[in-house]
Amino acid sequence: MLRNSNDNINSRKGIHKIIRERRSITVFKDKPVEEAAVLLILDAGRWAPSSNNSQPWEFVIISEKARKNAIADLYIEAYNKRAKKVDENTRKKIVEIMPYLEDELKVPPFLIIVCANSEKSKSYLIDTSASIENMLLMACELGLGTNWIDLTTTDFAEEFNLKKLKEYLFIPEKVIPIAIIPLGFPEETPPPPARRRIRDLIHKDFW
Ligand SMILES: Cc1cc2nc3c(=O)[nH]c(=O)nc-3n(C[C@H](O)[C@H](O)[C@H](O)COP(=O)(O)O)c2cc1C
Asked: Which residue, 39, 78, 106, 158, has most beta carbons within 10 Å?
């Protein structure tokens, strides 16, 4: 079966359907989301696997307008800093999306700041990433849109003022912000970005 693997995998039901339909959303409706839905999403996050069941994740849920705006300001600041360091083409792309960046974090009714207590697990980044993916899938199942804005490993993350974010949200020293997940009703239905072909990434019995 694996030897003949092709990309025509059509049995999209249940979890497989959700996995295939989840998209990263950057444009949200200005429409409230019930707290019960947020709780379900966080519940999905806490049921993720983690090394030694360490569960190093912590979730800061932001709904106050002023706080969302302050986080959006840090987001823009990071992009502006990044724009100064990149080549001309990348700078043009950043300038193009600049007018929309604020709304990405200001419009959705909730921002989930996913954090990790680094003292609870050596693999806190992996554990917390599993938790994030669970939440993105749960949100999709509920008809809600999300994105994964990484605060730890990307070029953008290098420019993000984590210290300011931590001070602003009273996050303890040992706790590390890992990602911002905006959460709201999607205002867009982006086409699925291409994935590598399944036959190109399977190595049967040996590489
Ligand atoms: C570690 C990580 C960091 C990401 N950072 C960003 C980001 O800063 N901004 C953004 O719009 N999307 C970000 N994304 C979303 C990816 O761009 C997106 O998952 C990818 O293009 C595939 O699209 P899809 O999620 O719709 O399938 C990130 C995803 C991951 C896993």
From this structure: 78
Q: What is the CATH number of the domain that holds 180?
A: 3.40.109.10
Give how many domains the chain has, as a whole number: 1
Q: How far is the CA of 163 from the centre of ligand 1 (A)?
A: 23
Q: Please work out whether the CB of residue 148 comes within 6 Å of at least one atom of ligand 1.
A: yes
Q: Per the domain annotation, does 4 fall within a domain?
A: no
Grade residue 7 by pLDDT with cuts at 50, 70 and 90: low
Cα separation, 110 vs 62, whole angstroms: 6
Give me the chain's average pLDDT, please: 95
Please, which pLDDT band fits residue 103 given cuts at 50, 70 and 90? very high
Q: Is 156 in the pocket of ligand 1 (CB under 6 A)?
A: yes
- Which domain covers residue 108, as residue numbers? 23-191
159 CB under 6 A from ligand 1? no
